[in-house]
Amino acid sequence: MEPIMSLQLVEKAAAPEAVAVITDEEGEAMARAAVNLFRHWGITDAEACTLLGGVSKRTYARWKDGDIGRLTIDQKTRLSVLMGIHKALRILFTEKARVYEWVKKPNQAFGGRSALDIMLGGYLTDIFRVRHYLDAARG
User: Fold this and answer.
1) Distance CA 66, CA 60 (A)
2) 92-135 pLDDT, tens per residue?
3) 68 near 10, Cβ under 8 Å?
4) Which residues contact 73 (CB under 8 A, 6 or more apart)?
5) Which of 38-45's residues contact partners 24+ apart within 8 Å by CB, and which partners?
6) Burial of residue 53 (number of CB atoms within 10 Å: 0-12, 13-18, 19+)
7) What's the CA gap between 139 and 135, in Å, rounded?
């Protein structure tokens, strides 16, 4: 005869703390900053659209005119990571030219490809890969 197994009551774990939410106002401010950053990086509208998660060229044109509109969580996240990349570059380099040129320069860490090449893979994880690299470089 097999022993009877009894169930034990398991206490509920506390819910994790809420993740900080990027407000619509913060998202709009980051979108305006990204338009300016992309101009400094010298990237095309098509490249900008890819970095922003596949927004249409028409939508990006509206952004450039200051009409941001409603942003998705994905877009807000992408913008936040891109702003983090810019911040890290400003910390790492004192010369403004290097801050803006770095994204297009070949990099051994990316197999000789540029950070922009990596980010243009289109996935959010591609942008995070560059961000994590810079965070590690900052120590």
Assistant:
1) 10
2) 999 999 999 999 999 999 999 999 999 999 899 999 999 999 99
3) no
4) 22
5) 40/100, 41/100, 41/103, 41/104, 41/116, 42/100, 42/104, 43/116
6) middle
7) 6
DSSP for 8-69, please give it: ---PPPPPPPPPPPPPHHHHHHHHHHHHHHHHHHT--HHHHHHHTTS--HHHHHHHHTT---
Supply 123's token pair.
């996935």
Neighbouring C-alpha atoms within 13 Å toward the C-beta of 32: 9
> In the numeric block, which tokens belong to residue 29?
């401010």
Tokens 């051994």 appear where? 108
In this predicted model, what pLDDT tens digit does every residue of 17-60 receive, in sequence order? 766 789 999 999 999 999 999 999 999 999 999 999 999 999 99
Q: Is the dihedral of CA 99, 102, 104, 110 positive or negative?
A: negative
**Token output for 61:** 């044109």
